[in-house]
Known about the structure:
This protein is an alpha/beta fold. It is about 35% helix and about 20% strand. The longest helix has 19 residues, at about 85-100.
Amino acid sequence: xxxxxxxxxxxVGSRLVAALSDRGHDVVALVRDAARxxxxxxxxxxxxxxxxPGSLPAAFRVAGEPVEAAYYLVHSMGSGPGFxxxxxxxxxxxxxxxxxxxxxxxxxxxxxxxDGDALSPHLRSRREVERVLAAGAYALTVLRAAIIVGRGxxxxxxxxxLADRLPVMVTPKWVNTPCQPVAVDDVIAYLAGVLDxxxxxxxxxxxxxxxxxxxxxILRRTRAHLGGRLFVVPVPVLTPRLSARWLALVTDVSxxxxxxxxxxxxxxxxxxxxxxxxxxxxxxTPFDVAxxxxxxxxAETDGAAPEGSExxx
Length: 313
């Protein structure tokens, strides 16, 4: 199948491009700077910017033929204030270009969280992008996930650095929020697998790992993999803004990324839907196995842009 992947240089996109190519698909990677992208063998590379609609038509055709499916894996949270508007415009431009090219299927990776839970700005933006894409004249498949565990994930990198650097942690009440982290290998299996199942077109699925954990448990167990113990002391008066400033002092994660992530930690993100897992036969990776793999991954993934810092491409 002819497949376009946007966000091809990102944490998820870089892995998905390789997986789709390995499965025999004719893959097109949309990037902003081809000179900085080391594409897998056989993958076509097209330069374009989702905020520049005139640059997109070429990405939706391969050797004169339109792509049959396209993945939307970009967001501009790391670009600072106003990311919601940029994400909306990027999604609208993608939708219009996909419609004009006659794309049959689009697959979008969004975020978990119930609309009634007063979603954080980041999660609200993810849901808005989902609605924009759903208005297109193609069959949309939506996957919603919480923290994706893997090297290059901004959310996991935040967890790793906190667990590594602070044996005693004073945190806001979000440490008790339930979350269902999922291994990046599983996410790639889900994303690639839906193309082999036409019945997933037009459906929305929630994907997660085998365990629901609080953020405190995620931090403690990550710390254990790093060879230590972690003591967490919740302090209710710490606001998301103060938390983000504190994180900027103790981690290397950009404040533009840290604050939206911290705000989202107040929302429970638990998968209530196992349909896709059962349909594709994915055996969910245990959290501790996913963490061990993420901590042990080598330099082969160092070139991938962290999740959350990749701008529209």
